[in-house]
Structure formats: C-alpha cells, structure tokens
Specification:
The structure is a homodimer of 433-residue chains. Helix content of chain A is 36%, strand content 24%. By secondary structure, chain A is α/β, with parallel strands linked by helices. In chain A, the strands form 2 sheets. In chain A, strands 7, 8, 9, 10, 11, 12, 13, 14, 15, 16 and 17 form an 11-stranded mixed β-sheet that branches. The longest helix of chain A has 18 residues. Chains A, B: This is Homoserine dehydrogenase. Chains A, B: Belongs to the homoserine dehydrogenase family.
C-alpha cells in the first residue's frame, strides 16, 4: 500500500452493472488514472457466481473466486471493491472480512451503509483502514467528497435532494405526458429505468438509505436509518400533478435532512416544490444534492445518479484517493468526535400542505371541510374547485398555511370520516430542498 | 506539520474581505473544524498595511507583520494563506517565499495562478509543499476538488460555466428589468456587486483567469492564459436581450474549455444559451461549473462564487486538507505527467451565431445581407424583423446554422461595409456549457 511505485491491486466482489463498469473504467482510462493515482490501479481478482456469463470485458489473467470472502482475504488483493449489494449476507461478510484483513474497502452499497454503517465504520477505524462509499450516494456526483471535504469548514444546516433517479424519471414522465403512475412505471421497467421489483425505489427506501448516509456526514453522527420518515410515490396521481402545475409547483421525491434548535429531522416524501426552485428543474433520471453551510450558503450538485459509468466513476475516485493515501474519517470526524443530536419525529414537522379530496358535489361540503380544518387550527391559503357535477364525485384542492404535522393529521382523519368525502384524501407536503 | 496533535498555525497575508472572512470562519467554527481536521487550526499571524482599521475581529494575540514576505518566513507560521490579490508584487513574492521556506500555501488568487501558476506549481513540487487554490475558482463551490479528485476516474471532455458573479448579476438584472448595460452596472457598483473599476469583471478577464485554471486541471497541462479567447459583456444591449428572449435564449457570459480531436479550445464570451438548459437558469450572483467526463457524463455544481463567507469556506477546506495530510498534485498529476494539447485558435471555432444589424429600412437590404452570407458559405436558420419604418434605422436579427468562426468573421466584415448597415453589427455565439 505505501510503496508509491507498486500498482494498487484491486479485487472486485460482484460483477453486475457496477462491477463490470469498474473494470471497464480502470482499463479504458488506465493511463490517466495511473497518472492521477501516482501508480497503476489494476484489477487482479474478481468474484461472481456465474463464470460463464459475458460481462463485456476480458477475464483472462484475473483470479476468479466463487466466494467473495475468499477474494477479500486473497494476498493478491490490496483493496476490495464491494458491489454485490444488499444489506446482509455476502456483501456484509465481504466488507467485514476485508477490514479484518487490514484492507481498504470501497463500496457502492447504500443499504449496507444505511443499516450497518455505524458498526462498519467503527470496525474500519479499529483496523485503521479506509472505507470509501462515494458511489453509494447520487452515483457519479461527488456528493460525499463535496460534503465531507469541500464544505468541511462549515456547520451544515441542511442536506437534501433528489436521490432516486427511478422516481424522478417516473414523476417527470407523468408530468410531461399527463399519464398515471402504474402505466409510467411499467414503461420504466420495460426501458430498464426501474427494477422488476421496484419497491425499493418507488417506496422511497433507496432514497432514504442515501439520505441517512448524507445526514450522518452532515451532522457528524452515527448513521441511524430508523430515525427517518419514509414515504414513496405510489399514491401520486396524474390529477395531483395537474393541480401542482396549476398551483405553480412540481412534485419531486425529496430527501431532506435538516438541523434545527431542537434536533435533526430526516424525511423522504413526495414534495410540492415551487417551480422556480432550481431543484424543481432537475428532471428525468438526474439526481441533485443541495447542501447549506453556515458560511458557504447553498451549494447544489447535479448529475447522473445511477448507471454503470457514473457509479463506476465514483468507485474509481475512491480507489484513486486510497492509492494517493488521501484519508478522511468515515463520517468526517473520528468516532470519538461523533455527536448525537435528538431525532425529531415527523409529528414535529412544520410546513404547508396540499390536500386533495374527492367529494360528492353538493352544498355544504366545503363548510364541513373548512370547519374541520378550523377546529384543528389549520388555516387555508387557497382552494381550487373546477366545474360542477351535482351529486357526482369531484376533486377539491386545499392549500394550507404553515401548520404542524400533528394538527394536519388530526384534521385529515376527521375529513376522511366525513360522509361527503368519497376517497382517502391525498396529502402532499409543500417544501423545497 | 506531521504531529497530529499539534495545532496547524496559519499566517494570513492580506486582511481584505477574504482574509477577515477566513479568520472569522476559523474562529466561529473552531470546534467542528478541529474535529474534521484532526487538530486545531489557529491563526497566529497576519499581515496588512493598515493596523488601525477595524476588520470585524479581535487582533489581540496575533503577530502582526507589515511585510507579507516576513509573515511567510515567520517560524510561528506553518501554512501561509495568500489573499492579497494581484498577479505580481507582494502576492507573488509571498507565495514564492513561503514555498521556498517549505511551507504549504493556500491562495484565492486566480490572477496569480492563471499567469504564474505553471512556475509556482513547479516550485511547489520542487519543494514538496502543497499549493491549495480551491478559493480561486467559483468561490464556495468545491469545483477544484470535484474536478481534480471527484471526477479523477474520467477523461474530461469539457469544463465550462458561469464563472463571474458580477457579469451574471448584470445580465440577470438587464433581462428581468429590460434595462441597459451602463445603468445596471452603475447600480451594481452602488450595491457593492461590482468594483469601482469593473474592467476585470465585465471584460471577462476574471472569468478567463478561472477558466484557465479549470482547463489546466481538466486536461492535465500547464496553465496557459495566453491561449484563451476573451470577450466581455460591455456590448450586450437591452435590445439583444429582448431578441434572445423571443428566440428562446438567455445571454450568459460563459467560459468554455473543450477537448476535440484537434486540440483544446478555451474561450470566454457572451453566449446565447437555450433557455431549457440548466445553466440558463443560473441567475444573479450565482456561479455554476459543468464538467463532462467520459464515464460520469455531465455534472453541474452551483453556488455562490464570491463573498467573504463562501470564499473563506474554500480557503479553510484547503487548510483542513493540509492539516489531514490529504495531498494532490497541483494540476491533478505530477509535473512529469503533464501533457500539452494543441491550443485551438478562435478562428477554428464552429457553431451557430446570432447577428443583429441596424439597417436603413429600404428595399434590397435583406438581399444584400443574405448575398454576403451566401458568398461566405454561411447558411441562415432564421430571421426576425419587426415592424416597418421606411428610411429609418431598424434592427434585423439573423440566426445562422452551424458554421466556422472564420466564415462568420469574413461575412461580418463585408456586412459592416454595406451602405445600408448603420452601426457595427452585434454578434453573439450560440452555445451551452
């Protein structure tokens, strides 16, 4: 490791899209990477279950392990790249084995870090090895480096953004084409922008994994996935997107980690973002991360959050840091300096709300609804109802002034119980990154 | 330097906005900076001409040097922060003296780096000391770190952006308020967004200094300011901004460094940017940097490009890197690995053009103009002429298809010589970051 003339020998555990992409980046850009790393970075070993599949690169000369843990302890491997994925099983075993063998690890595994990052960081610190995870958040965007090193002079007030390209793609197509969620999801699956099992993406879990990592870095505390409030985009309808447009908003799945005087709030949910906000313009599969520091103000980074090239670019950036000996504590500060701010529950959230009801069009409905809001202490900013259809189901949209989540939830359950309200109300928080 | 428990002692040469801002960041965020740097970073010495001025921080306990070179060689200083400014004189002397004394240097001085960066980088490499300059480009945006480390796995195809907040502010206000350049400049000076002598900003020199630095980093070659083509915004009129809006463009002062098969093109000039482009939305004093890599694709970074807080944030980020021992060669690779791609002259540029003429409104004018364009081999994409005013001066706007700068300049000089063309034509290149 410390001899600057020796090649850095990399073992890649997992040869899916990102693993194969990493081999390709290291080979295609070998000359420039070697100059920037100060020495060659070469893949010496790989592991994957199926040896026969064509992965788009030549495997001659590579040591092949069926067992990723065996790769991690192979003497021909200086650094282990873990791109198996999954929070448990072989991915976790491989990372732990590599650290215990004193080998630096680079991983793109956000689930692993969000759920076991605190333990793995302690282990890596105990063994004195770096654990790189630039690729785990926002793909090719150097968000981890920017937050942990570039903005290190600042107390971070908030970090937030569009952290899942699948959701952003679906919401963008729904808006541009006026189509409904299920249909656009099916297309996204056909085009390879969404997984066959899309739950991790569309239920907000993937974005929440990334936000948990960003929050730990921003606020210098152990990653704590359980503290997050998480909602996905399954219930967003073409109707709500049309109303958002009329009101001057765009609906984005945002992850928001914010520090207040009382503690830290971390949440992932669909958000009505004023369309003049920069982040409202980030469309398609692009990701964006916005960090606010007490001296730098707001900095936004934007780029591709997934895909072989962008993700492998981030993996190799970590390898170059390791080759150069550029070391940074995993959460920005050593373990002893980590803090723990109180986690604010979602019920403490304050903000404005968009509420869309399907009601029977008859006199007195609005009086009932507004009475409930008044009784809960929620004040209205505006109301939309288009056309008339006596006796039929029609949408009513209400936009509140800033209120508390507690008051809003109380009002929501009373409204849902009104006779004239025909479907469960749709509620979307108004906000920005 | 290498004892991790000893404070890193900083000497600050120059106590203007950035120097005073750096003291304030180091003091106000001392606890968090110390945790992230692994040891305290303390200001021990300062230099400035006038000791009596109130700079907004307590100077008790600081060693005061009248001569910045003396500060650079003070044994109580481990690292020198040069924020005097200017490409010659005390700034250059201070940086050279510090390097020769074996001390790391952090500077916000883009002029110094653009004009003497090649020499200073060689000197720093010879003495084995880091030379940090995150603050020299795009203020608080960690553009240098992102390009040099975050995207290090990529061959960089282009780097470009909005690099001068003063120009972007003036162009934004001109567009929003329909006012002319001179008037908006005077306001910007009154508000402190433009210097009393605004030439460096509005003539594009400041943006060009920053682009020269980004280009050197992106393409791994010694900084070469003389290779840049530079135009400013003095000749942009409210009329051109109105036509831009009609054509679906926004006028931005862009710096663009691009690699082609033939070499590298680096240029700063007002650009008609399609308004759907992300960078067209970057308004006011904000800066943005867009880098394109062969694997990562396009990454954009946005934030405040000037001001005490953002610039000091970047200075202190460099100090934290130095305190942690995170070292990177100045241009991303060691001196022996620097290359030198041919610099493409502006005459080799290819692109589309916006051309606005003031002509006498009489029959045959368009025939004359289009004949000249045809003879130069330039083909037209569209033409605008509003209203009629027989015998009077009226504007005509022409938008060309892609052509060469050489052909366009030939056509331009012939058009300027036509009897019916009453003023020097306005030419603005069409493009994007």
């Amino acid at each position: 490791m410390s001899d600057p003339h020796k090649p850095l020998r990399v073992g890649i555990a997992g040869l899916g899209t990102v693993g194969a992409g990493t081999v390709n980046v290291l080979r295609q850009n070998a000359a420039i990477i070697s100059a920037r790393a100060g020495r060659p970075i070469t893949v010496t070993a790989v592991s994957a279950r199926d040896r026969t599949r064509d992965r788009g690169f030549a495997t001659e000369g590579l040591i092949w392990h069926d067992d990723a843990v065996a790769l991690a302890t192979d003497d021909n491997v200086d650094v282990v790249v873990e791109v198996i994925g999954g929070a448990q099983g072989p991915a976790a075993d491989t990372v732990r084995a590599a650290i215990r063998a004193g080998k630096p690890v680079v991983t793109a595994n956000k689930a692993l870090l969000a759920l076991h990052g605190a333990e793995l960081a302690s282990l890596a610190e105990e063994y004195g090895v770096p654990l790189g995870f630039e690729a785990a958040v926002a793909g090719g965007i150097p968000a981890i480096k920017a937050l942990r090193e570039g903005l290190a002079a600042n107390e971070i007030i908030s970090v937030s953004g569009i952290l899942n390209g699948t959701c952003n793609y679906i919401l963008t197509v729904m808006r541009e084409q006026g189509r409904d969620f299920a249909e656009v999801l099916a297309d996204a699956q056909a085009f390879g922008y969404a997984e066959a099992d899309p739950a991790f993406d569309i239920d907000g879990v993937d974005a929440a994994h990334k936000l948990a990592i960003l929050g730990a870095l921003a606020f210098g505390q152990p990653v704590d996935f359980a503290a997050l409030h998480v909602e996905g985009i399954r219930r967003i309808t073409a109707l709500d997107i049309a109303f958002a447009r009329e009101l001057g908003f765009r609906i984005k799945l945002l992850g928001i980690a914010k520090r207040t005087a009382d503690g830290v709030s971390m949440r992932v949910h669909p958000t009505m973002v004023p369309e003049a906000e920069e982040i409202a313009q980030v469309d398609g599969v692009f990701n964006a991360v916005v960090a606010e520091g007490n001296f730098v103000g707001r900095v936004m980074l934007m780029g591709r959050g997934a895909g072989a090239g962008p993700t492998a670019s981030a993996v190799v950036a970590d390898l170059i840091d390791i080759a150069r000996g550029r070391l940074t504590p995993i959460w920005g500060v050593e373990g002893y300096a980590l803090g723990k701010l109180p986690a604010l529950p979602m019920s403490a959230h304050q903000g404005a709300y968009y509420l869309r009801l399907m009601v029977r069009d008859r006199s007195g409905v609005m009086a009932d609804v507004t009475a409930v809001l008044r009784d809960a202490g929620v004040s209205l900013q505006s109301m939309l109802q288009h056309g008339r259809a006596p006796g039929e189901s029609v949408p009513i949209v209400l936009v509140t002034h800033e209120t508390t989540e507690g008051a809003m939830m109380q009002a929501l359950s009373a409204i849902a119980n009104l006779d004239s309200v025909l479907e469960p109300p749709a509620l979307i928080r108004i906000g920005a990154a």
